Amino acid sequence: MTGTDRSPGGAVAPSSEPLPERQVALIDLLDRLLTGGVVITGDVVLSIADIDLVRVSLRALIVSIGPDTPSPWPAARPPGGGDDG
Amino acid sequence: MSDSVVYAYAVVRAADGVGAAAGALAGVAGGPVRLTAGSRDPGVLLAVGEVPAADFREEALRRRLEELEWLETVARAHHAVVEALAAVTTVLPLRLATVYVDEAGARAALDEGARAFAERLSLLAGHREWGVKVYADPSAAPPPPAPAADGLSPGRSYLRQRREQRSGREEVYRDARTAAGRVEEAALRYAAGRARHRVQQGTLAGAAGENVLNDAFLVADDRTEAFRTDVAGAAQGLTGVRVEVTGPWAPYSFAVPAEGNGDAEDAQDTEDTEGTQGRQGDAEGAHDTQGAGGAGSARGPEGVRGAADARGPEGGSAP
User: Fold this and answer.
1) Residue B288 neighbours by CB distance under 10 Å
2) DSSP H helical ranges for chain B
3) What's the gap in Å between the CA of A76 and the closest CA on chain B?
4) How big is the A-B interface in CB pairs under 8 Å?
5) CB contact under 8 A, B66 and A56
6) pLDDT tens per residue across span B147-190
7) If DSSP codes are grouped into helix, strand and coil, which group holds residue B15?
8) Prior bond of A79 cis (ω within 30°)
9) How many other β-carbons are positioned within 10 Å of the β-carbon of residue B49?
10) B246-283, pLDDT tens digit by residue?
């Protein structure tokens, strides 16, 4: 195989395979890698995957939370943050 | 040995050339990729590779995953491996950062799930995942026709203009719902499964307009052409609406059946029995199994529109 075309991002670009021509958008990738995929448990190290990655994904995907885009999950609201409106 | 741990990429169906494909890859952290077999089913392999323990042991990983740049590097490397393997055989991608202390642990996990993996691989064979996103972009709609200034006072003509703008926005969101409906029809015709993803917002969502639908579909290879054609035409004749198709993807969004066996058939393999079908919000079963974040999130144009458009057009008609 021709393993020569390797971009710093880690994307190997062999010629004959049906890879998308453009690099995929990170957000589309994270949609899949952080909420999709098989979760197999059974190892100590792994146990964080279920829990923490969800949080990571939320941070990564919805960075800007504001009045216009309220947080869709009930966490991380500053205590005593006034009324809910 | 203890300065490295084992990173697992995907469960793969044994096939000609898959070992060679793996051997040619550089995986996460640049490490080699290899296939390992369990003791239960020689037809189901696990793609693994060593990664530095300094970055991938629990504590470090927890910390590093919060760094977007590092996360991206790992995600792209993981993806490159999955893609390359998917090109030669059927794969079940694993969730990002599935790490084992050693290969024995990884093999044990493979054995434990061997039967389920084999079944799933059979269902996914000959299918690819396609992403479909619908965007509503009011700013892309043509501006309302210049107000015929038939003797209106500046104030009134301003109000009228505002009203027209608003109804323009309404129209765009209505059109977006229409497009979403067409996507759904195409899916019912051609897709074997559907998974909903949270609509994309925030700084990583760079695309213009508001993402109102972010779904993934599992499509058999021989139906891909028709599916893509239909979906690509979903925005036809609609203004301010854009449909974006991504893929083909390895079946990330379909790697596990929907939780609870009752849903499994819904997510998989049914061509036209998507429940009662029709409404966006209904056929949800498909993928919400891991949707902690998705739980209350806006899905479908309705939810989004409600949020974006809380004030209806009635606000501004003072005489």
Assistant:
1) 17
2) 18-23, 53-56, 58-64, 68-86, 103-124, 154-190, 224-232, 261-267, 300-308
3) 13
4) 213
5) yes
6) 566 678 888 888 888 888 888 888 999 999 999 999 999 999 99
7) coil
8) no
9) 23
10) 999 999 999 987 653 333 333 333 333 333 333 333 33
